[in-house]
Design a protein that fits this description.
The protein is an alpha/beta fold and 159 residues long. It contains 4 helices and 7 strands; from the N terminus they run αββαββββαβα. The protein has one domain (2-153): 2-Layer Sandwich (Beta Polymerase, domain 2). The strands form 2 sheets. A 5-stranded mixed sheet has the order 1-2-5-4-3. Keywords: Cell membrane, Membrane, NAD, Quinone, Translocase, Transport, Ubiquinone.
């Protein structure tokens, strides 16, 4: 698998992770399903390493082999300039919802996806909330020690 797809292998505490180029993920997923009996795509998620220069994102796939009791993680590094990866819908139909969630939260495009639209955030939402450069826009929690400071900055209704 490593030589065929140009993957590098990392092993930590008995868990194996393949690092693949984005061009190889669809063919590698097909091989994992057909030749290595990884019957199930358990999860698709992503990580944002901002402000690290490149690669900014990693898309992470978790494959499970029920027949061999094995779990394999595959990571695909993506640049900030072009956060795109081919869809795995054709190999694992259940990837549809996982990929929609990753697109909604991180803004990573899945090329060839049949229905790439928001799944968690409202349709008119602007931005992708799990990106590390996304503005937080939170309200500071009020405690007894900072009550006066927050009360001064907080908008109050007019009487």
């Amino acid at each position: 698998m490593q030589a065929e797809f140009g993957a590098s292998l990392q092993t930590f505490r008995g868990e194996h992770t393949l690092i693949l180029a984005r061009e190889q993920i669809a063919a590698a997923a097909q091989a994992l399903r057909d030749r290595f009996q990884f019957e199930m795509l358990v999860d698709v998620t992503a990580v944002d390493y901002w402000p690290q220069e490149e690669p900014r994102f990693h898309v992470i796939y978790q494959f499970n082999s029920v027949s061999h009791h094995g779990l394999l993680r595959v990571r695909v590094p993506l640049s900030a300039a072009e956060p795109k990866v081919p869809t795995l819908e054709g190999v694992y139909p259940g990837a549809n919802w996982y990929e929609r969630e990753v697109w909604d939260m991180f803004g990573i495009q899945f090329e060839g996806h049949s229905d790439l639209r928001r799944i968690i955030m409202p349709y008119d939402w602007v931005g992708h909330p799990l990106r590390k450069d996304y503005p937080l826009g939170y309200e500071e929690v009020q405690f007894t020690f900072n009550f006066d400071d927050i009360s001064l900055r907080k908008p109050h209704p007019k009487e």
